[in-house]
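your task:
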Amino acid sequence: MIDLGIILLRNWQEKDIKSLSKNANNKKIWDNLRDEFPYPYTELAAKQWIEIANQDKPLTNFAIEYKGHAIGGIGIIKQTDVFRKNAEIGYWLGEKYWNKGIATKALNAMIQYTFKTFEVKRLFAHVFESNISSIRVLTKCGFTKEACLKNAVLKNNQFQNCYIYSILNADFIN
């Protein structure tokens, strides 16, 4: 658990099923995420996610709690083989909670947690070109744009660019 005052990063719990499915069941959220994030987001999908999210020890996936409710999620995927010192980071928030600084606080805390907990030297995020808000959150937290993958994303039957943003452990500490 990571207590940030106004928000809390904690493990997903069975009590989050309704809140998770309510906040995640939004096409605007799905439009900015990979297709493996379900839409519509049902209570069954929420239950299945909660079971998966708590498997890694130490935890790699957290609920973002605000005023006692899970309003979004944040997590990392540790990479393997020659990329084993890298981790991909991703996050989402219920639309009602956008533009309140919550994602920035959660991302900063997750960066710190990842660099302290795991032997990770580089964190990176894939962000769709159309997701201006997420690009703003990443840059506020010190990520820099590394690459543009042209027409790499097929979402809603349309191609769009995907950017790779990253931050190095050494840069975050300094």
